[in-house]
Write a structure and sequence with these properties.
six-stranded antiparallel beta sheet, 15 strands, about 30% strand
């Protein structure tokens, strides 16, 4: 049984979340609400409501409220192919997805991720778990040529304190964003320990892993 924390704590299930969305009640949830559930490895883990009806109606977007682990974006120091070609994407939709509670896995909706590559082309991929972009965290993009015309800030991250993430030990850690710094061949953005979203780091450096997912109307 998962626990939904708003101003009070109530028992819930991920099937309840899906049902509320299917009945047109996505607005029952508010950015900043936390659902705590147990991962397959036994950890109690918090999931934050990041946005409601954000990219489409009848949708609730969640992000991890703490870092799942620390990993590089790529084993090799390259940002070629962006998120779509990254090792972290493979981990997110393989090992990380397998850690999610079984009833959550059943209701996660595939989301199409759109990226602008260094040559100006736009590419896309479809994932169940994904890393937020700079735009989704910050609400603005440092370099306009990277903007994909789709992403917009999650209300949860409009509160700067919500960008500060801890790992399972309680230590504050920087965490990955999926956006590549296209002026260079080896940098991806990450969120600093102070919550700043515009820092960048080599693709093979290890940072916290904060993943997002969407639950959308299914009927």
């Amino acid at each position: 049984m998962a626990i939904l924390t708003t101003k009070t704590s109530i028992d819930t299930t991920w099937a309840d979340v899906q049902d509320n969305i299917n009945y047109g009640n996505a607005s029952f949830y508010t950015p900043g609400d936390i659902i705590t559930d147990t991962l397959a490895d036994g950890r109690k883990f918090p999931f934050a409501v990041a946005a409601v009806n954000h990219y489409q109606q009848d949708e609730v977007i969640f992000t991890f409220a703490e870092s799942l682990c620390r990993r590089p974006m790529n084993k090799k120091d390259t940002n070629k192919g962006g998120w779509g070609a990254s090792d972290l994407r493979k981990f997110a939709n393989g090992e990380a997805l397998a850690l999610m509670p079984e009833d959550l896995q059943k209701v996660i909706a595939p989301v199409t991720i759109v990226e602008t590559q260094s040559d100006g082309t736009r590419t896309s991929c479809t994932d169940k778990l994904w890393v937020p972009s700079v735009m989704e965290v910050s609400g603005e993009w440092p370099w306009e040529e990277q903007e994909n015309g789709v992403d917009k800030q999650f209300p949860y991250y409009a509160v700067p304190g919500n960008r500060i993430v801890r790992d399972g030990s309680g230590a504050v850690c920087g965490w990955r964003e999926r956006s590549a710094l296209i002026s260079y061949t080896y940098y991806f953005y990450f969120v600093s320990t102070s919550g700043g979203p515009y820092y960048y780091s080599n693709a093979n450096n290890r940072h916290g892993v904060v993943l997002g997912f969407a639950i959308r109307k299914s009927v």
